[in-house]
Amino acid sequence: MPDTAPAPAPSGAPTRAREPIVEVIGLEKSFKTQRVLRNVNLTVYRGETMVIMGGSGCGKSTLLGHLVGFHRPDSGSIRIFGRDILRLATWEMDEVKKRFGILFQSGALYNSMTIAENVALPMREHAALDRDIIDMMVKMKLKMVGWTKPDSLKPSEISGGMKKRAGLARAIALDPELLFYDEPTAGLDPIASAEIAQLIVDLRDKLRVTSVVVTHDMTSAFHIADRMCYLHLGDVRMIGTPEEFRKTDDPLVRQFIDGSLSGPLTAATTGEDYLRDLLGEE
Ligand SMILES: Nc1ncnc2c1ncn2[C@@H]1O[C@H](COP(=O)(O)OP(=O)(O)OP(=O)(O)O)[C@@H](O)[C@H]1O
Ligand SMILES: [Mg+2]
Fold first, then answer.
1. What ligand has the least distance to the C-alpha of 30?
2. Among 272, 240, 237, which Cα is nearest to 255's?
3. 190 near 158, Cβ under 8 Å?
4. pLDDT higher than 90, residue 220
5. Which domains are seen in the chain, by residue range?
6. Which residue's C-alpha comes closest to atom 7 of ligand 1?
7. Best CA proximity match to 259, nearest among 226, 228, 217
8. Ligand 1 contacts CB of residue 234 (under 6 A)
9. Mean per-residue pLDDT for 88-117?
10. CA max distance for the chain
């Protein structure tokens, strides 16, 4: 489905011509015989939070992996900040990577390092800064994500919610213009999930950062999204605002957002089409 949905300005932002930050055109990817992404078209504009959702195995992480340069598609193109990342030399891609941050599902913190050292890592690697300046910036980033514990703790000594905060502080270490989140609330209790979701909204509003968030946590999705994209078996089934999703009468999307047990998603698990999809056959 082409990305024809209008892009509203995020709350509070003036309406003007919008700059595409992420553009995915005709993306196709198969792993062996399994078609995982099917003609995916998606545009994310500066300052908006795009939530990508869909059932387990529908290709969300694979799509995210393409956007950050972990995967190469079989065909199609990906532009980040207007640059065709599939045609960049490694050093050019490194320049693009400095402009975005990633919050991995696990937080991906180094266990042997303190939280402060983890957050400082990208600053040490990519910016020639004095130790004092780095220490000050680490404190600033941790404050931004609502860190309340000593920064001398190790990842093994903190809760899942605090790990996400620390991972987020590291993701924003270099003041990215674009943030990618993979399941930022997975494994958290409802309160910690709501806090992380609020943090994502705050970062958008305070830093004017553009975000792409993969999640199947519907409560958070509706809280943080300016627009949403629903993937079904690697296919973009719907793109729209949370309001459009709330009102949709597409039975597949409806069942997913309502979390109903009966509907086309569960009926399909016994159908021939679904088996054909699973086997990657046409
Ligand atoms: N490196 C790989 N090699 C082979 N198959 C893969 C690879 N990565 C993903 N897949 C397959 O591609 C499909 C989509 O996987 P993906 O991880 O993108 O799903 P997802 O939507 O992120 O699921 P979840 O919600 O469970 O995280 C799955 O069937 C998965 O088994
Ligand atoms: Mg995934």
1. 1
2. 237
3. no
4. yes
5. 49-62+103-278 (3.40.50.300)
6. 31
7. 217
8. no
9. 90
10. 63
Taking the C-alpha atoms of residue 169 and residue 120, their distance in angstroms, rounded to an integer, is 9
Residue-by-residue DSSP string for 98-146: HTEEEE-TT----TTS-HHHHHHHHHHHH----HHHHHHHHHHHHHHTT
Q: Is the CB of 57 under 6 A from ligand 1?
A: yes
Asked if pLDDT for residue 127 goes beyond 80, the answer is no
Closest residue (by CA) to atom 28 of ligand 1? 57
pTM above 0.85, yes or no: yes
For residue 13, report the distance from its CA to the centre of ligand 1, in Å: 35
Q: How far is CA 212 from the centre of its chain?
A: 4
| Residue 62, ligand 1, Cβ within 6 A | yes
Q: Is 111 in the pocket of ligand 1 (CB under 6 A)?
A: no
Q: What letter does residue 187 receive in the DSSP assignment?
A: T
